[in-house]
Write a structure and sequence with these properties.
There is one protein chain. The chain is globular. Helix 1 (about 10-15) packs across helix 3 (about 55-65), helix 8 crosses helix 10 (about 330-340) and helix 9 (about 290-300) packs across helix 10 (about 330-340). The chain has a seven-stranded mixed sheet with strand order 13-12-11-8-5-16-17, with no helix packed on it. The protein has a seven-stranded mixed sheet with strand order 21-25-26-30-29-28-27, with helices on both faces. The protein has a five-stranded mixed sheet with strand order 4-15-6-14-7. The chain folds into four domains: about 5-65, Phenylalanyl-tRNA Synthetase, Chain B, domain 1 (2-Layer Sandwich), CATH 3.30.56.10; about 80-265, Phenylalanyl-trna Synthetase, Chain B, domain 3 (Phenylalanyl-tRNA Synthetase, Chain B, domain 3, 3-Layer(bba) Sandwich); about 275-340, Phenylalanyl-tRNA Synthetase, Chain B, domain 1 (2-Layer Sandwich); about 360-535, Bira Bifunctional Protein, Domain 2 (BirA Bifunctional Protein, domain 2, 2-Layer Sandwich), CATH 3.30.930.10. Helix content is about 30%, strand content about 30%. One of its GO terms (molecular function) is phenylalanine-tRNA ligase activity. It catalyses: tRNA(Phe) + L-phenylalanine + ATP = L-phenylalanyl-tRNA(Phe) + AMP + diphosphate + H(+).
C-alpha cells in the first residue's frame, strides 16, 4: 500500500489545524501512521483511496472530518481556447486522453515534491505501473498551443527529461532509466505516442518520459497536464491531480480534445456523480440506527453532498469526481460509518466461546519478526500475487514449472502466485525512492511452490556501501538465534553477481540463496544503488 510523506508546514496550512490534532485524528479516516519525523509524517493509505495520495488530498479530507469545511468540494473550471488534436493513428496506440491547464500556482520545493509523488503514486495505484494511466505535467512558459497527440515513427528525436542530448524514441527505451523500466508497455508497436506543441516542441512521450523543455521548477506558475491511457481511469487521475493543485490556489482551465472524426471532448469534467441510497441499507449494514440528520452530517463530513429524498426513504448523494473508490452503495455506507466513528459502534461478544492456541507457523513468524526487527530491519507485507515479468524476467531468472497461475487475473500485474519473496522487496525499494538510504526491509510470509504453501524469510538492504559481508552477517545472526547449523556453497542464481552469491545449505539440502544483486536486476526495477539480500525456506 502507498506510503505518503506529509510535511507538517504544508499539512497545517492546507488543513487549517495544528499537526498534533491532525495526527491524533487521521487514523480514523482509514490510515496507518508509519513513522513520525521532526518535519514530516509518513502515512499509509489503502490503495482504493488515490485521492489521498498527496498532502492536498489528505488536508481536504481532514478539513471535512474535523468539521472545518464540510460538504461537497466545488472546483470551478474556466473554459479556455486551448485545444489538442488527435491524429487518426493514435487510436491503435494509446487512445484515451484527458488534459487541463492550471494557472497561478506558487510552487515551493515541497509542493513540487508533493506533485511528483502524487504523480508516481497514481501511476502505481490507478495506472498499473503506467499501463492504464500515465501523467505528464508541463511548464506552460516554454510551450505554445495548440497541441497535437500523434503516433510517430520510433526514430523521432527529442531531448528527454534528465538528459542533455537528443535521442530517438527507440534509444530512450534502451538507454534512459525510465525507458528501460517501461519499454514493455510499448512492445510490439510500430509507432509510439507523442505530444507536441504548435512549434513541434515535445511535451511528452507517454507513458515513458517528458521532454526536458517542460520541466517543472519553483519558478513555474502555469501547468499543462496530460493524462493518457486505456480507459476512464484517465479522467479520474486527471481530476485527482487537478483538484490537488486547486487546493493550493491554482485556477483550473479546460482543454478541448478534438478527435480524428471531428468529435470533441472538454476536460476536466468535475461534475459530481448522483447516487440514490436507501435508508434501509444504511441501518442493516452499520448495525446502528442513526437519525436522518446524523446520516447527512456524516456524509458531509466525508466530502459528499447529501439530502433526504422527497419520499423520505432514500438519500440523494453527490459523489465528488475525484473519488475513484465509490463503486456502489456499500462504499458510501462505509464512509458514513467512518464519519460516525467505528469507536462509537458498540462491540459485542460472540455467543459461543472457544479456546485457541497459536499455530506453529505463527510462532515461527513471530520469532523471525523479533529477530529481524532487532537487527534493524523493517517489516513489509507486499501482495502474494505478482507477474512473470517481475518475478522472472526482471530478476534475470528462467521461468520454472512450479508456478501456480491465476485462472482469471484482474490485471497483467497479478497473473501468478509468487514462488519467492525477494522480487516483492525490490519492488518496495523502487516505490520508496523518495526515502533516505539505507533502507532495510524483510518479510516472513508464504509462497506457493508446486501448489503447496511454504514459509519463506527474505531480507534486503539498499545503500551505497551494501556488500556480501553485510548480508552474510545478518544471515549468521538469524541462524544463530534459530540454532540452525548451515553452510554455504557456490551459487549459480543469475539474480546475483557471480562470485558474490552463495546457496544456503542445511543438512545437505539447499534452503536459500544470498548475495549482491546483479546490476541489471537493479536497473530493471528502476533503482541505482547496490542491493544485498537473502531468502531462506523456513517451512521445515
Amino acid at each position: 500500500m502507498p506510503i505518503i510523506t506529509l510535511q507538517y508546514e504544508d499539512l497545517e496550512s492546507l488543513t487549517r489545524s495544528d499537526k498534533d490534532t491532525i495526527i491524533d485524528r487521521v487514523p480514523m479516516i482509514g490510515a496507518d501512521i508509519e513513522r513520525i519525523e521532526k518535519e514530516s509524517i509518513d502515512i499509509e493509505f489503502f490503495p482504493d483511496r488515490p485521492d489521498l495520495y498527496s498532502v492536498e488530498g489528505v488536508a481536504r479530507a481532514m478539513r471535512g472530518f474535523m468539521n472545518i469545511d464540510i460538504g461537497l468540494c466545488q472546483y470551478d473550471v474556466t473554459p479556455s481556447d486551448i485545444t489538442i488534436e488527435l491524429d487518426d493513428q493514435i487510436e491503435n496506440v494509446r487512445p484515451v486522453l484527458g488534459c487541463a491547464v492550471v494557472r497561478g500556482i506558487n510552487f515551493t520545493s515541497s509542493s513540487i515534491k508533493s506533485l511528483m509523488d502524487l504523480q508516481e503514486s497514481l501511476h502505481w495505484g490507478l495506472g498499473r505501473n503506467r499501463k492504464k494511466v500515465s501523467i505528464g505535467v508541463h511548464d506552460m512558459a516554454s510551450i505554445t498551443p495548440p497541441f497535437k497527440y500523434q503516433a510517430v515513427d520510433p526514430d523521432y528525436k527529442f531531448v528527454p527529461l534528465d538528459f542533455t542530448e537528443p535521442m530517438t524514441m527507440d534509444e530512450i527505451l534502451v538507454e534512459h532509466p525510465k525507458g528501460i523500466r517501461f519499454a514493455d508497455i510499448l512492445e510490439g508497436m510500430e509507432k509510439y505516442p507523442l505530444i507536441t506543441d504548435s512549434k513541434e516542441n515535445v511535451l511528452s512521450f507517454p507513458p515513458i518520459i517528458n521532454g526536458t523543455l517542460t520541466r517543472v521548477e519553483e519558478s513555474t506558475t502555469d501547468l499543462f497536464i496530460d493524462v493518457t491511457g486505456l480507459g476512464d481511469a484517465v479522467y479520474t487521475a486527471l481530476n485527482i491531480v487537478v483538484t490537488a493543485l486547486a487546493e493550493r490556489g491554482g485556477k483550473v482551465e479546460s482543454v478541448k480534445i478534438i478527435h480524428p472524426d471531428g468529435t470533441e471532448k472538454i476536460t476536466p469534467d468535475m461534475t459530481a456523480r448522483d447516487l440514490k441510497l436507501p435508508r434501509s441499507e444504511i441501518d442493516s449494514l452499520i448495525g446502528v440506527e442513526l437519525t436522518n440528520k446524523e446520516i447527512i452530517n456524516e456524509l458531509e463530513r466525508m466530502g459528499f453532498g447529501a439530502s433526504l429524498s422527497d419520499d423520505g426513504e432514500n438519500f440523494d448523494i453527490m459523489v465528488p469526481s475525484y473519488r475513484a473508490d465509490i463503486l456502489h452503495n456499500f462504499d458510501v455506507i462505509e464512509d458514513i460509518a467512518i464519519g460516525y466513528g467505528f469507536d462509537k459502534i458498540q462491540s459485542k461478544f460472540p455467543k459461543n466461546a472457544t479456546i485457541g492456541s497459536a499455530h506453529p507457523i505463527s510462532l515461527t513468524r513471530g520469532a523471525m519478526r523479533e529477530i529481524m526487527v532487532s537487527l534493524g530491519y523493517s517489516e513489509v507485507m507486499p501482495f502474494t500475487l505478482t507477474s512473470q515479468k517481475v518475478h522472472f524476467e526482471w530478476m534475470g531468472r528462467e521461468e520454472t514449472d512450479d508456478v501456480t497461475f491465476v485462472l482469471h487475473p484482474i490485471s497483467e500485474d497479478q497473473t501468478m502466485v509468487r514462488t519467492t519473496i525477494l522480487p516483492n522487496l525490490i519492488e518496495i525499494f523502487s516505490l520508496n525512492q523518495h526515502h533516505e538510504l539505507p533502507q532495510r526491509i524483510f518479510e516472513v510470509g508464504e509462497v506457493v511452490v508446486n501448489a503447496k504453501n511454504r514459509l519463506h524469510l527474505s531480507a534486503a538492504s539498499i545503500h551505497a556501501q551494501a556488500n556480501f559481508t553485510e548480508i552474510r552477517e545478518v544471515l549468521d545472526a538469524v541462524m544463530r538465534e534459530r540454532d540452525i547449523q548451515y553452510e554455504v556453497t557456490e551459487s549459480t542464481d543469475p539474480a546475483f553477481i557471480e562470485g558474490r552469491r552463495a546457496d544456503i545449505i542445511v543438512d545437505g539440502k539447499k534452503v536459500g540463496v544470498m548475495g549482491e544483486l546483479y546490476p541489471g536486476v537493479i536497473v530493471n526495477f528502476g533503482l541505482g544503488q547496490p542491493i544485498v539480500a537473502f531468502e531462506i525456506d523456513m517451512t521445515e
